[in-house]
Amino acid sequence: MHSVQDLEQVIRQLSPEDLAAFRAWFIEFDTALWDSKLENDVTAGRLDKLAEEALLDLREGRCTDL
């Protein structure tokens, strides 16, 4: 297993093309992790209170259109 410092050193040595490919891969990887975490939070009901508050604010006119 590599340390973060090892990975940083390897990334610094990448060619511009490989760095672009790594960046694109990492964005997809990070997005998938975020999506999974959000799905788990929604399924577990961790966002229910926030959703209820937002809907109440909307019903009571405390929101503006973007």
Structural write-up:
- With 66 residues, the chain is mostly helical.
- 74% of the residues lie in helices and 0% in strands.
- The protein has 3 helices and no strands.
User: What is the H-and-E element order?
Assistant: HHH
Number of alpha- plus pi-helical segments: 3
**Rg over CA atoms:** 20 Å
Let me know the largest β-sheet.
Answer: none
Proportion in helices = over 70%
Mean pLDDT: 96
What's the count of strands? Answer: 0
The secondary structure category is mainly alpha
| Gross geometry | elongated
Straight-line N-to-C gap: 46 Å
- Strand-residue fraction? under 5%
Q: Which blocks of ≥5 consecutive residues have pLDDT under 50?
A: none
Helix and strand topology:
Blueprint (H helix, E strand, L loop, with lengths): L3 H9 L3 H28 L4 H12 L7
Task: Write a short abstract of this structure.
By secondary structure, this protein is mostly helical. It contains 3 helices and no strands. It has a domain at 14-59.
Task: Please describe the structure with a list of short key phrases separated by commas or semicolons.
single chain; 66 residues; mainly alpha; elongated
